[in-house]
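It is worth pausing here to work through a concrete case rather than discussing structure prediction in the abstract. The textbook approach is simple: state the sequence, then state the predicted structure, then interpret. We follow exactly that order.
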Amino acid sequence: MMTSVDTDLIRVLADPLRLQIVTLLAKEMLCTTHLVEETGARQTNLSNHLRVLREAGVVETEPCGRFTYYRLKVDVIASLAGQFADLAESARTAAENKRSCP
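Step two, the predicted structure:
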């Protein structure tokens, strides 16, 4: 049973704009133009956040003419969810454990 969670990935997703991007990409593939419209972020700021998400392996790109579409890598999100599920199960089974004080 795994009881640790990928802290690097959590740091990446902890940013509110990156989490918003991931939430939008969970619904459909979007290009940068769509993401600018949806988030209200500046294109340069959004591009920097997309780079961080790509480098973390959370999103992947698909060129389409002069646009680049972004797709959420479901397996990465599912793995993180599984790590949290394992952590919750560990906490559930250890709920009655109490270490005695010296």
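Step three, interpretation. The CA atoms of residues 3 and 85 lie 9 Å apart. The chain has five helices and three strands.
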